[in-house]
């Protein structure tokens, strides 16, 4: 083992097969940052910061554009309620800002949730869209809309209950002395198909007005997003995202495999169950606020991983890319067809479909 001029002080270069002496640090070739007991890849931090700036840039463009076009100066004045024209304060502060913030925060939440499940399953297809948790939250939301009406509180409660019940069913059906990623995906796909059929039956049996409300919400949209909906959703998303972050040390160890994680002192099943619980609740909160928005949770972790060129799935990268994908998709949904606005879920499905085809081709080439 030879010494190095590493930026992490007395670190030594890692050579496979050689023993690390007590007190030495190992340099795996990439500079790391330490914060609150966590080691974070510096490249992940830098790329995530750049992606976040791009997301904020898209958000600023979203504040400028619309039927009532504004200048950058008017946008800044409107954000602080200081514009000379009252309509500018209303357009920026009440109509557009909540929608932009929702796109960034909820997109980050979807990215984090996708990263957790892809790490647990050790499979790029293991996102909550694919394994049924988003659909379960959607089912819970539809049931409460039909029974109690379309208020945010009841829909959020139903979405959380639906998502958690789906997670419990998938977990129990998957259990065989432990939870294996591939089995989790197969069981999740089967349950998603059954829930989709049940959702269709519910909408067909519902009163016309309630069926239209459920169908509109089910498309996944940020239209009409206001502060009253955004604030509780944003608080829940941030808290649950931080909860996923607290578990992330155990998550990274689980990616090495159950046997290795046990050898390193990780209690696999409690950590796995806790991560599933928090990540499902995160998906359910996002679904309650904006409906089931597909493919962001699937694509964001893998795109972030490839941009940062990291070995594992990073929650930070996934959150940044998720925010960029959702706020960018919403910008397209608002302005691509002129005066006709699309639900953002339609745009993410189109983008995600292309991404899924590319991902399947890549996985098929690896298998060969």
Please characterize this protein's 3D structure.
The structure is a single chain. With 368 residues, the protein is mainly α. The chain is 70% helix and 4% strand. The protein has 13 helices and four strands. It has helices spanning 42-64, 72-79, 86-121, 133-148, 152-174, 181-205, 208-218, 227-254, 258-263, 268-290, 296-308, 315-335, 344-367, and strands at 11-13, 25-27, 32-35, 38-41. The strands form two sheets. It has a two-stranded parallel sheet. Strands 3-4 form a two-stranded antiparallel sheet. A hairpin with a 2-residue loop joins β3 and β4. The protein is globular and about 65 Å long.
Radius of gyration: 22 Å
- The strand line-up of the biggest sheet is 1-2
Q: Distance N terminus to C terminus?
A: 37 Å
Kindly state the number of beta strands.
4
* Biggest pleated sheet: 2 strands, parallel
Q: What's the helix-strand series?
A: EEEEHHHHHHHHHHHHH
Estimate the mean pLDDT confidence: 80
Helicity, as a percent range? 55-70%
Parts with pLDDT < 50 across at least 5 consecutive residues: 1-26
Query: Which secondary-structure class do the elements indicate?
Result: mainly alpha
Annotation field: number of helices = 13
Q: Categorize the overall geometry.
A: globular
Sheet-strand content, in percent, reads: under 5%
